[in-house]
Write a structure and sequence with these properties.
It is a single chain. Helix 3 crosses helix 4. It is globular, with a radius of gyration of 20 Å. It is an all-alpha fold. The longest helix has about 35 residues. The two termini are about 15 Å apart. It contains 13 helices and no strands. Helix content is about 70%, strand content about 0%.
């Protein structure tokens, strides 16, 4: 209800003379409303996308990532996934590339996910130093997590060789530690990474990752019943 009120007050488009605070509130409200598939916001975002369909980079920067996410959530087609990846390759705007990476991760069709994974090892599509952004966005989505986690494990030697001494290599240890929250994922993390603690460059991050996931699993187990009980009051 709070976000609906903000949307009704501010609308989708920025207005002359409005404050920076209003723009921040608009972006926050739209983000949550689009996540919740609130139809007035969904339709407004879809209208903006259609108006810029021939050049999605021209979508107003303040709402561009929300429009791109909304379109992926609503259309969710291989064609749209390919369009986003092609736009990623051709743009020189690093912020737009990050937004496209974030938006395409909302796909929920296996064909599209397989296509994305087939592109990640092509350095002409995704530069090795940017690979972690794709990994982070897709690993955090429930639809893609299992497939992408297995892809990383299966391609670990390639990831290690491709990144070499790049600082982003640590991310492939740290990212799952920041996302995983079940005992099953903790067991898988330990099974895959614990044998690699002999690598001194990874040892500390692996041990910290195990502790981080374990603490999250324990916290959920401890507080889950109380949280569910409190939510029932609403």
């Amino acid at each position: 209800r709070q976000f609906q009120n903000d949307f009704e007050r501010l609308g989708f488009d920025a207005k002359d003379g409005e404050s920076d605070e209003d723009e921040m509130v608009r972006q926050t409200a739209l983000s949550y409303l689009i996540q919740a598939d609130y139809q007035p916001a969904v339709l407004a975002a879809a209208s903006v996308f259609q108006a810029h369909k021939e050049n999605i980079e021209s979508i107003p920067a303040s709402v561009r990532v929300l429009v791109l996410i909304n379109q992926m959530k609503q259309e969710d087609s291989l064609t749209l996934v390919e369009d986003y990846v092609n736009a990623y390759v051709t743009t020189n705007d690093s912020n737009f590339r990050r937004q496209l990476t974030q938006a395409v991760s909302y796909l929920k069709n296996q064909e599209g996910l397989d296509y994305v994974l087939s592109q990640l090892k092509d350095k002409h599509v995704v530069k090795p130093q940017d690979l972690y952004l794709w990994y982070m966005n897709f690993l955090s989505k429930s639809f893609a997590q299992e497939t992408v986690w297995n892809w990383a494990k299966d391609n670990w030697d390639w990831i290690k060789a491709a990144l070499g001494g790049d600082m982003s290599f640590d991310s492939f240890v740290n990212i799952p530690a920041s996302i995983f929250k079940t005992q099953e994922r903790l067991d898988q993390y330990i099974a895959f990474f614990e044998p690699q603690t002999s690598d001194k460059a990874l040892e500390r991050n692996i041990l910290m990752g195990i502790k981080t996931i374990a603490a999250r699993v324990n916290l959920i187990e401890k507080e889950k019943a109380a949280v569910e009980s409190a939510l029932k009051d609403y």
